[in-house]
Design a protein that fits this description.
Elements: E1 4-8, E2 14-18, H1 19-26, E3 33-34, H2 39-49, H3 55-66, E4 72-79, E5 82-91, E6 97-101, H4 114-129, E7 132-139, H5 140-148, H6 152-161, E8 165-167, H7 172-178
Parallel strand pairs: 3-6, 4-7
Antiparallel strand pairs: 1-2, 4-5, 5-6, 7-8
Helix pairs in contact: 5-6
Length: 179
């Protein structure tokens, strides 16, 4: 189903998107449910992801490595004091990607400091979708560097060193990879 949604981004500009665009960018299987996507956040996520090579393969490997069966993961990007982009993925008990959404600005405040907003978003994910295995939040320049870097672990460490990252919850496999 290709559902048309219209909403406004954080700058007040109208954004239009289609579920098919999400599936295409993330190389999603047609059975993956696309839930209540916020057009502004998705538009920003698309801008970040457009130049990324091998995104589908990286996306699948990350889910396999860091998202527990029957749980969710959230990745967010902060810009100008707000959660500018987010992506929440949920896997079923067989560890198959089941759903994709964004943080819902009607249910969680997206404006404020990264630590507070990221904690609130993870709590929202837990209330709405159940267990959350991973919360990964970057400042925008560090998200761009992460996507462009062939060494993702080094990019995460650089963001952490510079105070431009919130990583909570942290799956054990990721903690080991970053050590």
């Amino acid at each position: 189903m290709n559902v048309h949604r219209r909403c406004y981004d954080l700058e007040g500009e109208e954004d239009t998107m289609h579920d098919g665009e999400i599936a295409e960018v993330l190389a999603l299987h047609p059975d993956v449910e696309v839930l209540n996507i916020d057009g502004g956040q998705w538009s920003h996520a698309q801008r970040l992801l457009d130049g990324s090579s091998a995104l589908g393969a990286d996306f699948s490997r990350a889910i396999d490595a860091f998202v527990r069966p029957g749980s969710s993961a959230v990745v967010g990007v902060f810009h100008k004091g707000a959660l500018w982009a987010s992506l929440v993925v949920t896997v079923d008990p067989a560890k198959v990607l089941a759903a994709v959404t964004t943080a819902d600005p009607a249910q969680v405040n997206l404006h404020g400091d990264m630590a507070t907003v990221s904690s609130d978003v993870v709590a929202w994910v837990r209330r709405r979708l159940g267990p959350c295995s991973l919360g990964l939040f970057f400042d925008k320049p560090y998200a761009e560097a992460f996507l462009a870097s062939p060494d993702k672990a080094a990019a995460v460490r650089a963001a952490a060193t510079d105070g431009a990252l919130v990583l909570s919850p942290t799956p054990p496999a990721l903690a080991i990879a970053l050590a």
